[in-house]
Amino acid sequence: MVLSSSRFGGTFNQQTRKMGVAKVFFAIIAVLFAILVYFMLKPQTFEPIKPLEEKWWGEGSRQDESTEVIPFKVDFSESRNSDLLARLRNTRYFESLENAGWRYGTRPDFMKIVVEYWVNKYSWKTQVDYINQFDHFKTSIDGISMHFLHIKPTNVQPDTKVLPIILIHGWPGSFFEFHKAIPKLLAENDGYAFELVIPSLPGYGYSSPPKRPGLSPEYIAIIMNKLMLRLGYKKYYVQGGDWGSEVSRMIARLFPQQVKGMHVNLWAHQTHPKYPILTHIVGAVAPSLVLPDKAERDGIFPIWEKIKVILEQSGYFHIQATTPDTVAFGLNDSPAGLASYILEKFVYCFDGTRCPDQDVLKCMADRVTLDELLTNIMIYWDTNSMPTAVRLYKEMVNSENTALLGYPVLVPVGVASFPHEIMPPPKSWVEASCSNLVSFTVMKKGGHFGAFEEPDAFSEDVRQFVYKVEALPA
Fold it and tell me: Does the pLDDT at position 81 exceed 50?
């Protein structure tokens, strides 16, 4: 066969052009990556945080607001309880798919077990009596009727140093998350004891909701700081998980002169937007290069698997951050629907989805009981507060102060990193987001609801963090 020189030459020139295009393409990618690395590693500079405008969230006007702190008791209503039981008895069920597990959400067969227990064995009256053993109060701040527990230690020695700390819950939790940690934190230990302030977030449980949009975490932080000042605490510690961690960070950023230290059991990655992004990009190819520690590496990588889990479990976030009132109608009208929505999060976080329907509660029994889970649900149901609670996601997304998310935390920081968080933060990420990481504990077990699941370990980690801060040079 005789090859045409012109044909051969044309093919050669075509291959040469393709190689040239490929080189240009990879050169552009390399340049873009180099630019990305430069901006990611370039030191960040932050303007001083300007005081936020104080806003009024309630009815009436600020001039009419009382600063009085009033004792409060959770009331039990027989008529509301009868209505609840009637709705539960009329629950409309549907069939589970065969071998579907929890991949489609809450198992209908599991909900039948929960509803049957709720109707026949659970006593809201008994739980109300238990809740009322704690000291509850209310006070009005910026138009919000704030509910909170204020519990002081008793029988402490004269030389005991009593330290105030505010414990802030998240969604779909409540102040009740801390009930097992309360006696452990009140107990005198090594010359220290805590005075506990445990509020309900605005619009959650027994705290009233805002009357207008915009009450995002930074404005909640303003309310929480005012609460502590009203109670006479010019210096205090903050602790939070879930939304409580975000509010805690905002308090620490906005009021560093009041906050002695901040402890959280969730460190959201967006608090330092540059370093984690670069780590994800490089780590997707070479994870050991960016995170030499295997335990930290396993919490983040393989990144695509983690992203898949987040996408599977975060549908609620998108709904609540866009059209929260739409889903709120069903959650506010059906106790079984409300329980399904909340329990799915607890069961997943407690790793109960690996168990058969009849054994889910047994798998979780060493950490939480069904009575405790139902009491947390009842706090939402009895107060009609799920609609106002889920709006916080939209307020966060629509916040006019999102730049604050990138600001470092300058007060002493402690982190309890529970292994069953979806993406436990590497210590290096936390260090890049704060100026003084005093304590970073990789907890032995537990997940998203640290105080609820592991009250002993949770309380001990809070204590050891505070002891370290108290030992710092003045």
Answer: yes
